UniProtKB/TrEMBL annotation:
Domain BTB: 29-93
Stored InterPro entries: BT1/2/3/4/5, BTB/POZ_dom, SKP1/BTB/POZ_sf, TAZ_dom_sf, Znf_TAZ
Organism: Cucurbita maxima
GO cellular component: nucleus
GO molecular function terms noted in the UniProt entry: calmodulin binding; zinc ion binding
Pathway: Protein modification; protein ubiquitination
Keyword hit for Thylakoid: no
Any Gene Ontology biological process: response to salicylic acid
Protein name: BTB/POZ and TAZ domain-containing protein 1-like
Alphabetic keyword roster: Metal-binding, Ubl conjugation pathway, Zinc, Zinc-finger
A Pfam cross-reference name: zf-TAZ
Amino acid sequence: MEALLLPYQIHPHSVAKDRRPEFQELPEPDIHILTSGGLRIPVHSTILASVSSVLENIINQPEKHRSSKKVVHILGVPCEAVVSFVQFLYTSRCTEEYLRKYGIHLLALSHVYLVPHLKNRCSKHLARKLTIDSVIDVLQLARMCDAPDLSLSCMKMVSSHYKAVQKTEGWKFLQEHDPWLELQILQFMEESELRKNRCRRQRKEQRVYLQLSDAMECLEHICKEGCTNVGPRDVEPTKKPCAKFSTCHGVQLLIKHFATCAKRVHGGACWRCKRMWQLLRLHASICDQSDACRVPLCRQFKLKMEQEKDGKEDSKWKMLVKKVVSAKTISSLSLPRRKRAAAEDTTSGDRIRSFRLQCVEPNGSVL
Ligand SMILES: [Zn+2]
Ligand SMILES: [Zn+2]
Ligand SMILES: [Zn+2]
C-alpha cells in the first residue's frame, strides 16, 4: 500500500517532539493501522494497547484470528479521522479543526475502542456545535455511542426548537425509520414541560415562605426596637425605615389595624385581623426565646401549643412552620457574615416581659 499524504506524520520523530518522557525514546513502530482509504499508519503496539483495551485485545489476538499480525484495520471512517484518532492515542490532544471536521467519526471511534477522554471531548464539542439541521443525526449517533450527556443536550435542543426541527430532513427520516425515538422525544418534551411547571410552582411557594420569614423578622424588630411609626411603648421607634421596609410597612399596617379594629374588639374577625393573628401564631411557633420575647401573645400561643402537644396541631400548619424556618435559614446563609453577626446580636437579652404595642400616627399621637 502506498503512503498517502497526511496532514502530519505519525512517526516516532514527530512524537519525539512531545516533552513527556514516555515519548522521548520510542523504538521503531512495530505495527500498522490500515484505513478504508488504504492508508497505512505506522504505530507502536505498546502505546495503542496502553490507551485502548479494545486495541490491546486486537493486538494480542492469536495470529489465526487476524489477517496479518502487523496490521490493525480501522475501517468505515475517513482516513484523516483515523489519523487524528491515532494522534490522540499518542498525545491525548485533538485540535479544534479536527473535532469540527471529524467530531462524529471521532465520537464513534472513541466509543468502539473505549477511549473515554476522547469520547468526552467529542461529546462536549458536538453538544456545543449542535444546529437545528444536525441535531437529530447527532442524537441518533449519541444514542448509538452511549453518550448520555450529548443525548440530553440534543433532546433539550429539539424540545426548545421543536417547530423548526420538525421541518428538517433528519426529523422526516426519524419519523419514517425510528418511531420509537420519536416517541421518546415527545415523552421527554412532555416531562420537561411538567418539570418546568413544577419548578415554577416551587419557586413561587419559596417566595411566599421567604416573605413570611421576612414578615417574622419585621414583626420581631417592630416589637423590639420599633420602626418608623410603630414600636413598643417604652422605646422610641427608629425614624429611618429599615432594610426590609416594604415588608415591614405591611406588618406595621396590620399591627395598627389589629390594635384598633372595631370588629375584633367586639369579638368578630376581619381578614386583616385573621392575618395578624396568623402572623402572631406563626411567630410563636418558631420563636426560641423563652420569656424574653416581646412579641404580643407569644407566651400565650406557646402555652396553648404546649397544652395541645398531643398531636392536635394540624399537619398543614406544622409544614408551613417548617418551610418558613428553612426559608429563614436559607436567607440568613445568603447574608454576608457581618450582617449575619449583627442579626444574631439583635436577638439577644431583653428583660421586659409585658408589652403593648403603640402605633404612632404620623402626627405623633399614640394609638
Ligand atoms: Zn422595619
Ligand atoms: Zn380587623
Ligand atoms: Zn416570641
